[in-house]
Amino acid sequence: MITLRQLHFLVAVADTLNFSRAAEVCNVTQPTLSAGIKELEDRLGVQLVERTRRSVMLTALGEDVVNRGRALLLEAEAIEVLAAAHRNPGEGNLRLGAIPTVGPYLIPSALPLIRQHFPRLKLFLREEITESLIEGLTQGRLDLILIALPFETGSLEITKLFQDGYQLATPPRETPPVVAGPDGLATGDRLMLLERGHCLQRHALQAYPHRHLEQDESFSATSLTTLVSMVSEGLGITLLPNLAIDAGLASRGEVRLTPLPDACPRQIALAWRPKSARRDVFLKLAELLKKKRHGEKACTP
To answer: HTH lysR-type domain spans which residues (predicted)?
Structure first.
């Protein structure tokens, strides 16, 4: 019978397309990993991996086996997590993924409160764009993700935390200063935004559904900090989320901020796999994050 260890080796090869790196991932020697892959192929009577001196690739059947193997490994891990959760649900490692426009502006300030309630919980934070976070969660690489809605999340279980509105950021020496009217930004306004792939890029353009806001295609940033720097140099205007502003993103007076109370906010949420054994822990973490945010600034859940 095939073993989980063999499947683990195969999935590592699929992820790295390199036997040496796959062996490092599995914490075994390369000969041990190669032997495990060979044993799996012999057991099944088919070739799963094509290997030359220069490249490694999976056969078509190998791809299918990897997909099924991931599911089996995830279920096996879920069994272990289930047992551990029943023993000590608030202990152990927790792999939390967060989008870059939320994680660094919420998690650090919330950590003391989280540690107070879960002193034996080790929180590992990883920042990625939303699509990568969802993939990491469904594949078992992450336990919990912190994202912004709307975004297609499939069958994941979601709990909403709070709404995050925007302010208009303009150069500090703008003459005359840019002041948003009662309807916010006007149709045709061009914004400097994060590069495509960041959900905030899409959310900002949808802040006023009845206005046709456009992105300044001459420039896109990889971080909110870069956006602030560009605006401060007089290169354009942008929308900054209140969460980042409240965390001090623009505290040095680099940009002029104008509230946009009529802008459609994004919804900050936690998501996890359905039927997770640590669901109660995740719900408690959601309460703590909401409490931390509400304690800093009133917001509408």
So the answer is: 2-59
What is the rounded CA–CA span in Å between residue 7 and residue 181?
A: 60
User: For residue 200, is it within any domain?
Assistant: yes
In the three-class reduction of DSSP (H, G, I as helix; E, B as strand; rest coil), residue 262 is classed as coil
CA gap 270, 104 in Å, rounded: 15
Backbone phi and psi for residue 177, each to the nearest 5 degrees, phi listed first: -60, 145
pLDDT in tens, 84-131: 766 776 778 899 999 999 999 999 999 999 999 999 888 999 999 999
Q: How far apart are CA 34 and CA 279, in angstroms?
A: 38
Domain of residue 190, CATH code: 3.40.190.10
Closest CA to 12 of 46, 38, 45, 37: 37
Cis check for the bond before 104: say yes or no (omega within 30 of 0): no
State how many domains the chain has. 3
**pLDDT tens digits along 122-149:** 899 999 999 999 999 998 899 999 999 9
How far CA 300 is from CA of 155, 161, 246, 265, in Å, comes to 25, 9, 16, 10
